[in-house]
Amino acid sequence: MTVLRSIALFVLAALAEIGGAWLVWQGLREERGAAWIGAGVLALGAYGFVATFQPDPHFGRILAAYGGVFVAGSLAWGMIVDGFRPDRWDVVGAAVCLVGVAVIMYAPRS
């Protein structure tokens, strides 16, 4: 159950961080305005809180593992929200990152 909770928290963190960055991007680059930027800043702040709920007590480990989730999540966000089509190297790279997440977070430790 701890692994499932951790994975759910990684997904929630990715939605907050990637979504927040996307909202800021839309507000500035696509000129949608201050409300979009403000919503993005709030979402980015929420990301910082979500990470604290991970069951592992080590900030560095959680943030390192989240980096891999961020890579894969960003590509998925681009596909779903922006119609981005990753090439095979994007997919391979994201898979490598997710393997890294699994090793960092869920490998047996003594």
TrEMBL record:
Query: Its domain of life?
Result: Bacteria
TM stretches of this protein: 6-25, 34-53, 59-77, 89-107
Keyword set for this entry?
Answer: Cell membrane, Membrane, Transmembrane, Transmembrane helix
- Membrane-related topology note: Multi-pass membrane protein
- Alphabetized InterPro entries for the sequence: EmrE-like, UPF0060
Its annotated compartments are:
Cell membrane
What HAMAP family does the database record attribute to this sequence?
Answer: UPF0060
**Which family does the entry's similarity section mention?**
Belongs to the UPF0060 family.
The protein's name in its UniProt record: YnfA family protein
Q: What organism does the record attribute this protein to?
A: Nonomuraea typhae
